[in-house]
Amino acid sequence: MRTIIRLLAGLATTAALLFPAHAADKYITVASTTSTEQSGLFGHLLPKFTAKTGIEVRVIAQGTGQALKTGRQGDADVLFVHDPVAEKKFVEEGYGVGRREVMYNDFVVVGPKSDPAGVKGAKSTAEALKRIADAQAGFASRGDKSGTHAAELRHWKAAGVDVAAASGSWYRETGSGMGPTLNTAAAMEAYSLTDRGTWLNFKNRKNLEIVFEGDPSLFNQYGVILVNPDKHAHVKKDMGQTFMNWLTSAEGQQTIADYKINGEQLFFPNYKPGS
Amino acid sequence: MNDFSDAFATALSLILNLDQDLAEIVLLSLRVSLTAVLVAAVIGLPLGAALALFRFPGRSAAIVIVNALMGLPPVVVGLVVYLLLSRSGPLGPLGLLFSPAAMIIAQAVLVTPIVAALTRQVVEDLWAEYEEQLRSLGATPARAIGTLLWDGRFSLVTAVLAGFGRASAEVGAVMIVGGNIAHVTRVMTTTIALEVSKGDLALALGLGIILIALSLAVNGAASLIRETARRYQGALA
Amino acid sequence: MATFPPITPLSVEGLAFAVDGKQLLSEISFTLEAHRTALVLGPNGAGKSLLLRLCHGLLQPTAGRVSWQGAGADQASAHQAMVFQRPVMLRRSAAANIDYALSLRGVPARQRSSLTAEALERAGLSALAKRPARVLSGGEQQRLALARAWSVRPQVLFLDEPTASLDPAATRAVEELIGRIRADGTTIVMTTHDLGQARRLADEIIFLHRGRLVEKTAAADFFSNPQSQEARAFVAGELLW
């Protein structure tokens, strides 16, 4: 094992010599979620930030669970995720500091146009999911411990449905990101819970459409956290803080609100000082 | 069938329009994979030759292991390299995670066993022919390895190409250690994975077609050089 | 190249070689003086090639020893060369094959090109210097192998059936080359199954049968008056086994 590590260290040094440019660059690494990346928000947001501050933002799009893990390991400077419960735990455990709530988007339930489970008339999220379970209609779940997955599981619990028991029958866990899960749902003519941003940007819809939306319980809060520099000394705290400050500034909040697909706003800024 | 014609149309228009982002991604793919293959060749060629020449206890076990490592799952390699390069890992202070260097390391780890295993086979056959003559001439083992690698060069090109194929086609390892960061670590395969995620299957397949074309071009060029040189040098066997 | 003290005579004492318990050579003892050409004869399977490889040091005997008795004996391996029945041609040009052998013997690069040219000239291969060695004909390859062996100026040259797979014209060219190398004073130990060739080239005959040394005599005596029954039968062209 020693020799292997030494060999890898040699390799790493060689590689570092081959690509020396990155050490000097002014950039921060942000671990975020697939929903923000795949919805195109970052493509809209980041160039404006970079133009203003000269700081490049390198985004690694992961599930919220994996992004939190990346932060815990010290492999990112800032986290931009959507699972308030897990985020608060992350801060309490001392891995992150200065958490701020930035914006929210909402989840929608998508399903086949024919709507075999009759979800369209449902009054609440719980009722919509209950109808899917009762009809044993196909449902594609992320199953990847992401923020979306965590939200979905909370809704099933609220609906009083034990999806673990149905796993493998009508309830399908894809164990992958939002896009691949939607691909699966489209191919199987199944229902799925997705964030609106990914859905609006998603091209392979086939027979799917939104069958349920607008319930306040479907709102999805995003927060930013600086990885604790006391735990990981290399964290670029000044540049990271600059990014967080900008996101929650009037200008940053307006830029978020300006992002639209087909005229539809995807993310709703809601930073409140002290949040 | 519509998907396929869309994909070809997409691929064609990307190429014809000399898409800037595409060019950047293709160049990074080539830079990462070619560097990884170079590193793998520098390690794998002498290692394979040494396995062919030296008789030592545990040699057959070593050969079995190297052969088995040819099938290393990229995701596992990615994970191991990730854990080593992570800020919390033993090589964390180098700060290489989520950089092209990390991708090169992961691909080099994947490719080295392929180069070593195929080299061992080629060199072992050649050594059977050369051994007495080289020993008679007084060649040291190190010198013999150099001679065998040089004389086996036309066959070894194939070993290196196999490594390049593996490196340029894999997605699991570079996704984990590179992070698929736009303009920094986004290569052909991770872009394809991303476009599949977005449901843009035509663009994904279009990129796939370009990747296959690139691979064909590299292999075709190498094969042409090899065949020409081989004809000039006389039959290999 | 400076004259190196002689490594000869070659002394072989109680030499034996076995593989997997099968005794292939046993109790072979003889001495070979400098500047002689010794032909190792015997029926197939007598152990002729094995004896050459043992003397040259490519194989280690299971019993007995091969020792060089001359003043230069401590560097004996650097002053021998061997040519094999099937010439081993490196995958490079004829000239580069010779250059390679010279570089292995530590000849400085600036001297190698003239020595290479001389060796090619001697083998009548100057015109083919740049040709890849492996596209040469069988006879040309064997002459190149000889030129390569000779280029390092060995005191002792081992030749294992150098003409076995050649046609008569190529055989003749190779024999002429051997004759020239011999005329330089090189000690030659050679196997052949061609009795005519043995008569043409040999000073001495080492006759093996079933892994044992049956006779070692001057060539003239061997052919005119073989001492053993086996040698008599062999010279008479009878089948021996």
Protein described:
The complex is a heterotrimer of chains A (275), B (237) and C (241). Chain A is an alpha/beta fold and 275 residues long. Chain A has helices at residues 2-18, 21-24, 34-38, 41-53, 64-73, 84-92, 125-135, 147-159, 163-166, 178-188, 196-201, 237-247, 250-258; strands at residues 27-33, 56-62, 78-81, 96-112, 139-141, 171-173, 191-195, 208-212, 219-227, 260-261, 264-265, 268-269. Chain A folds into 2 domains: 2-104 and 222-269, D-Maltodextrin-Binding Protein, domain 2, CATH 3.40.190.10; 106-218, D-Maltodextrin-Binding Protein, domain 2 (3-Layer(aba) Sandwich). Helices cover 45% and strands 24% of the residues of chain A. Chain B has 237 residues and is mainly α. Chain B has a single domain (2-11, 30-232), classed as MetI-like fold. The longest helix of chain B has 38 residues, at 100-137. Chain B has helices at 2-16, 20-53, 59-69, 74-85, 100-137, 141-151, 153-169, 172-178, 188-197, 201-233. In chain B, helix 4 runs parallel beside helix 8 and helix 5 (100-137) packs across helix 8 (172-178). Helices cover 35% and strands 24% of the residues of chain C. Chain C has 8 helices and 9 strands. Chain C has helices spanning 48-56, 94-104, 109-122, 138-151, 168-183, 195-201, 219-224, 229-235, and strands spanning 10-19, 22-32, 37-41, 63-68, 80-83, 156-160, 187-191, 204-209, 212-218. In chain C, the strands form 2 sheets. A 6-stranded mixed sheet of chain C has the order 5-6-7-3-8-9, sandwiched between helices. In chain C, strands 2-1-4 form a 3-stranded antiparallel sheet, covered by helices on one side. In chain C, helix 4 (138-151) packs parallel to helix 5. Chains in contact: A-B, B-C. Chains A and B meet through helix 1, strand 2 and helix 10 of A and helix 2, helix 4, helix 5 and helix 9 of B.
